[in-house]
Amino acid sequence: MTSPEQLRARTKDFAIRIVRLFRSLPASSDAQVIGRQLLRSGTSVGANYRAVGRARSRAEFISKLGIVLEEADESVFWLEMLVETEIVKASKLEALLIEARELTAIFGAARHTSRKK
Predict the structure, then answer these.
(1) Which residue has the higher pLDDT, 1 or 97?
(2) 4-116 belongs to which CATH class?
(3) Cβ 105 vs Cβ 72: under 8 Å
(4) N or C: which end of the chain has fewer CB within 10 A?
């Protein structure tokens, strides 16, 4: 089980890795457009997860968790786009894609469990 503190650190680390990736992208317009989208969604995962901890009600908690899930899943999409458009080699993004998919699975399961209670 992953504690809230571990998830805060993990989502922040994910955001930092996304920022570093963005800085390394080529200057081409397609890379920059996709990169900016990834930068927004990838950094939003951690920022919105912090907001989950400040939820004032169960409904707000579930709603905020849903936003985190959406942003994590969107990050997966943009990472896949970078690979599939051959802007970045798959080997360079493999670990980051794994992390994005794991975060998506964690937040999906957490949201599902929270809704069932």
Answers:
(1) 97
(2) mainly alpha
(3) no
(4) N
Q: Which two tokens stand for residue 61?
A: 């908690």
pLDDT tens string 30-68: 999 999 999 999 999 999 999 998 999 999 999 999 999
DSSP secondary structure string for all residues of the chain: ---HHHHHHHHHHHHHHHHHHHHHS-SSHHHHHHHHHHHHHHHHHHHHHHHHTT-SSHHHHHHHHHHHHHHHHHHHHHHHHHHHTTSS-HHHHHHHHHHHHHHHHHHHHHHHHHHH-
Percentage of the chain beyond pLDDT 70 is 98
116 closest CA partner among 71, 103, 1, 108 = 108
**Model confidence pTM above 0.70:** yes
Domains of the chain by residue range? 4-116
- Residue 37's H or E segment, with its range, is helix 29-52
Residue type for 52, please? V
Q: What share of the chain is helix, strand, coil (3-state, %, to 5)?
A: 85, 0, 15
